[in-house]
Specification:
Elements lengths: L2 H6 L9 H10 L1 E5 L4 E3 L7 E7 L2 E3 L10 E3 L4 E2 L3 H4 L7 E3 L3 E7 H9 L2 H20 L1 H12 L11 E6 L3 E8 L2 E9 L7 E6 L2 E6 L5 H12 L15 E6 L10 E2 L2 H9 L8 H14 L6 E5 L9 H4 L5 H7 L8 H15 L7 E7 L3 E7 L2 E5 L20 H9 L4 H10 L2 H6 L5 H9 L3 H25 L4 E5 H6 L1 H8 L11 H5 L9 E2 L8 E4 L4 H24 L5 E6 L2 E3 L2 H8 L7 E4 L6 E10 L4 E9 L6 E3 L2 H7 L5 E2 L10 E4 L4 E4 L3 E4 L2 E4 L1 H7 L6 E6 L5 E10 L6 E5 H7 L6 E9 L3
Parallel strand pairs: 9-14, 14-16, 17-20, 20-22, 23-36, 28-32, 29-32, 33-35
Antiparallel strand pairs: 1-8, 2-7, 3-6, 3-8, 4-5, 4-7, 9-10, 10-11, 11-12, 12-13, 15-16, 17-18, 18-19, 21-22, 23-37, 24-28, 25-26, 26-27, 26-30, 30-31, 33-36, 34-35, 34-37
Length: 763
């Protein structure tokens, strides 16, 4: 069928010229649906817009609302609101008769819309109407919340992505398209006699000997297997959309996967000193793929450390002289990030809970082991540090120990290389037991009464239990405990031992559920009793799938960066935000008297918002901050925004959060003209953010809750990372930072900035 003609006749795309529509048509695909088949499911991530070509398609009534379904006539878009909000589907989209639909990827459409001002303006009108209607309709707002609670992963990318993991003596790979493994394999004993390729593809298993293979020869053999007519997974190598490389260490710079260019390669070489056993090999894999694959196949680095870049400074700092630590990157980075991120997100989807509502601990237990505290979907602490050696007991790694022990061994004459080998290769479970670093062998030996094996298991479980207790204290509570990794997924006895002694935190196991074997079809399995205070889950990790998804998102961000560079002629005004308070009406009346209404003092730059004549005093455990201005209009929930310096003055630790994200935050006392209020929660330090309208968001290629990097113009160039994008029809384009940051950077209201790049896509 003529996809171009379908797109040309779609009213919402009328602002795009024929060249843009032609490029979209090349990336679009056509799907046929039978009567009753769901096209989109409630809570499903939406990664494309749909255009109905023929048949009857309708959007089901919102959950819990009743009413009639809404038809989607031919030529009308659906799924377009997620282009701006990133939200999942808030209702099922169903084919009521045999139907045909053209699907266009969001990333491609966003790129074309951003380059066409007329198209951005017309689509913004449609999206603004939807957003305004939602703001006035509590049923729609409730449906959005329900969709986020029942998040269903998208069907996945259609393009095949090669996931590559090079080790010092091995090459592991998988070719993935969506949820399908087209092929996978490994080359073992690289650089040694007897190197061998084991490959499984469309035609079954393929095994080849590769005498004395180095990494280049091994990778050549793997690529040949991928295009083998009988056993491969793809017709030609140029059909591979991208290569996602697992890179162990990204240092402090990389908070997401990135498309590799010369500057990225240079940074990977620089941080190789932090991971000398891993990064040089990872970089070699990138360089070999650049040589062996057709030109134009993007190489993407996906970092084990990236998920942990959200750790607050007090969690990642070592107590070392600050200048020395900064100069030499001596800080805690954390690892296994792709696994921790995947299982945390999967646990939220399985429980039907948004990440912001859960305090979670994820335990990746295998030959390498780490544990992470996940709050509001972000890593706030993790057991591994500068290197993967810190933290839990592992297969052959010692984990936590007294640094003085290393000094003692050095004074006793042990060389650095010997200490390295001792702590990384001869310690952990293997060293404690004297038998093996494999938990399966140790459990068998312990069953036979071997004292060393039993001790190794006890130390391993004790160390995990100790970290669970510590991280529960760090987050002031625990909702969910997740086990993953080879040991975490399969060793029921280890899970049971770890959870013993955690009942004071509400951790309990249903031993029958815990003993049940893993079903490969299960994305997650609850092993705690129904109604237990803490839900305990087993979630099989999927690092390969996570790397593949991160690879394509990195390419999309890279394309979006081109759009942002074209918008550098549109500077964004900076506003400096002083401390302030937002009140709900109930609290207005407690503080200022029954029936009191906030009194506008002056309008603010954001339409409909105003500074009030009313002020309150803030009282914390340590001190007081007086005459803090209230901003109107009233909100549904009270919130206090303070600066970092005021945290110490008041004696509280307020997290850096987006406005409105106050669950689990500290409280304080508010004193008004007519009374005082003990606020149990609601105090934050506001995350630096950009307000933007739908039309401007489309023009910049941004969506709500994107995290961007911003360059501030002035006498000296300044870069601010972790800037939150908030999209609303009433917003004026402006970046807000707090007073402390502005003073430190010598920034005044009225200065301007430009968006440099997208760090994270809004989810």
């Amino acid at each position: 069928m003529d996809v171009f003609a379908v797109l040309r006749s779609t009213v919402a795309l009328a602002g795009l010229d024929d060249h843009a529509l032609g490029r979209l048509a090349e990336q679009a695909w056509v799907e046929d649906y039978s009567a009753g088949q769901r096209i989109l499911a409630l809570g499903q991530e939406v990664e494309q817009v749909g255009v109905v070509v023929s048949g009857e398609v309708e959007v089901a009534a919102l959950p819990g609302r009743g009413g009639d379904a809404v038809p989607v006539p031919p030529g009308q878009l659906f799924g377009e609101i997620s282009l701006l909000t990133g939200e999942p589907a808030i209702a099922d989209v169903v084919a009521r008769s045999s139907s045909r639909v053209v699907h266009v990827p969001h990333a491609a459409l966003a790129e074309e819309i951003a380059r066409a001002p007329l198209a951005a303006r017309e689509l913004a009108k449609l999206l603004t109407e939807r957003l305004v209607r939602r703001g006035d309709d509590p049923d729609e707002q409730a449906a959005v919340d329900e969709a986020r609670r029942t998040l269903v992963p998208a069907e996945g990318h259609r393009e095949p992505v090669l996931v590559l993991n090079l080790g010092s003596s091995s090459i592991k790979y998988a070719l993935i398209a969506g949820r399908n493994r087209l092929a996978r394999g490994a080359v073992d004993r690289v650089g040694q006699p007897g190197a061998r390729l084991s490959h499984r593809g469309s035609g079954g298993k393929l095994v080849r000997e590769i005498p004395d293979a180095d990494h280049e020869a091994g990778l050549r053999a793997a690529l040949e297997a991928l295009v083998d007519p009988d056993h491969g997974g793809v017709e030609r190598l140029d059909r591979i959309a991208a290569v996602g490389h697992r890179v162990v260490h990204g240092g402090a710079r990389f908070s997401e996967a990135v498309v590799v260019d010369d500057s990225v390669s240079d940074e990977l070489r620089r941080v190789s000193a932090l991971a000398p056993l891993h990064n040089p090999i990872n970089l070699l894999g990138i360089e070999l793929c650049q040589q062996l694959l057709p030109a134009g196949v993007p190489q993407v680095a996906v970092f084990d450390t990236a998920f942990h870049t959200t750790m607050p400074e007090h969690a990642f700092r070592y107590a070392l002289p600050r200048e020395l630590a900064d100069e030499r990157d001596l800080r805690r980075f954390g690892f296994h990030g792709t696994s921790h991120k995947y299982v945390a997100r999967t646990a939220c989807a399985h429980l039907g809970r948004p990440p912001a509502s859960l305090k979670m601990i994820t335990c990746h237990l295998g030959s390498g082991a780490s544990i992470t505290a996940v709050e509001h979907g972000r890593s706030v602490d993790t057991s591994m540090g500068l290197t993967p050696l810190e933290g839990l007991v592992m297969g052959t790694r010692a984990g936590d120990l007294d640094p003085g022990l290393i000094l003692h061994l050095a004074r006793e004459g042990m060389k650095t290389e010997e200490i390295d080998e001792l702590l990384n290769e001869r310690s952990g479970l293997a060293g404690l037991s004297g038998i093996s670093g494999d938990m399966r062998e140790l459990e068998q030996a312990a069953d036979r009464g071997d004292a060393g094996a039993l001790l190794a298991i006890q130390v391993f479980c004790y160390r995990v239990r100790k970290y669970v207790g510590a991280y529960t204290a760090v987050m002031d509570g625990l909702d969910t405990l997740v086990f993953t990794g080879g040991i975490g997924e399969h060793a029921a006895g280890v899970r049971s031992r770890i959870c013993q002694g955690l009942s004071c935190f509400g951790v309990r196991l249903d031993q029958e559920r815990n003993a049940r074997g893993v079903d490969p079809a299960d994305r997650a399995r609850v092993i705690s009793p129904d109604g237990a205070p803490v839900t305990v889950l087993v979630v099989p990790t999927d690092e390969e799938g996570t790397i593949a998804g991160a690879t394509l998102r990195a390419i999309q961000r890279d394309r979006a960066a081109d759009v942002l560079q074209a918008r550098r002629d549109r500077p964004i005004r900076i506003g400096v935000s002083a401390h302030h308070v937002h009140l709900c009406q109930e609290h207005v009346e407690i503080l200022f008297g029954e029936g009191h209404q906030l009194t506008p003092l002056k309008e603010l730059s954001m339409a409909g918002q105003f500074a009030c004549e009313e002020t309150v005093d803030l009282i914390g455990p340590k001190g007081r901050v007086e005459r803090v201005r209230i901003l109107g209009p009233v909100r549904s929930r009270t919130q206090v925004e303070i600066a970092r310096t005021e945290e110490f003055q008041l004696g509280i630790d307020a997290p850096i959060r987006a406005s409105g994200d106050v669950e689990g935050t500290p409280g304080l006392t508010l004193v008004g003209a007519a009374g005082e209020l003990a606020l149990e929660e609601g105090v934050i330090c506001a995350l630096r953010h950009i307000h933007i309208s739908p039309e401007n968001a489309l023009a910049f290629g941004l969506r709500d809750r994107d995290i961007v990097r911003v360059e501030v113009e002035g006498e000296r160039s300044l870069i601010f990372g972790d800037v939150l994008v908030r999209v609303h029809p009433l917003f004026t384009l402006e970046m807000h930072i707090d007073t402390d940051e502005a003073n430190a950077a010598e920034i005044d209201t009225g200065m301007t900035c430009t968006i440099d790049s997208i760090q994270h896509r809004g989810e």
